[in-house]
């Protein structure tokens, strides 16, 4: 089943012993397009602190009631490494977090998202032994987690092979694999104001400094795409 990212914002997340908080945004891998973390704002029980929860912690989602149960306790989340979600996630923070939750590290063997049998093929994370054997500062300097916020990338301009065509309005994810499959593009300023879906396989390049996504298709092809109505 497919879902828009925006439709997931506000979903409640429940630990095995009570509610944790609600989803505020998601982080995705800019190479594989896999969702790596859900950013959850906790309630008063944890002073509204934001925490990162990997999809592999999810149990069967309750889509109808907008609830994500997870196989974690509130104490596990409370004692998790402190990560400022307003700052880039560092290499060491990822290692500490995966160690704390005993999550399977993403890499060559991939990892399972909740109860799904779909494996996410994500880039390898350098383990603690590698850090001990090398200069930690050097590894941190060279480490790129490839994490991007769906909230912050929304609004990026879309450039086709022959000109600008619109901007990102939202993302479509596969609820089984937790991968982004399509970009929802708003063409309002270019071709009459409708929205279309373009598969992420057509993304040729992302220019982070100029807030632009380059596609390998023409404006004519995009104009011919069916109008997308947000019913997912």
Architecture overview:
This protein is α+β, with helices and mostly antiparallel strands and 232 residues long. The chain folds into 2 domains: 2-147, SH3 type barrels (Roll); 154-223, SH3 type barrels. Helix content is 20%, strand content 34%. It contains 8 helices and 15 strands. Strands 1, 10, 11, 12, 13, 14 and 15 form a 7-stranded mixed beta sheet that branches. Strands 2, 3, 4, 5, 6 and 9 form a 6-stranded mixed beta sheet that branches. A two-stranded antiparallel sheet has the order 7-8. Strand 3 (18-29) and strand 4 (35-42) form a beta hairpin. The longest helix is centred in the middle third of the chain and has 11 residues, at 91-101. It starts with a strand and ends in a 9-residue tail after the last helix. Residues 108-124 have low confidence and may be disordered.
Features of this protein?
SH3 type barrels, alpha+beta, single chain, 8 helices, seven-stranded mixed sheet, about 230 residues
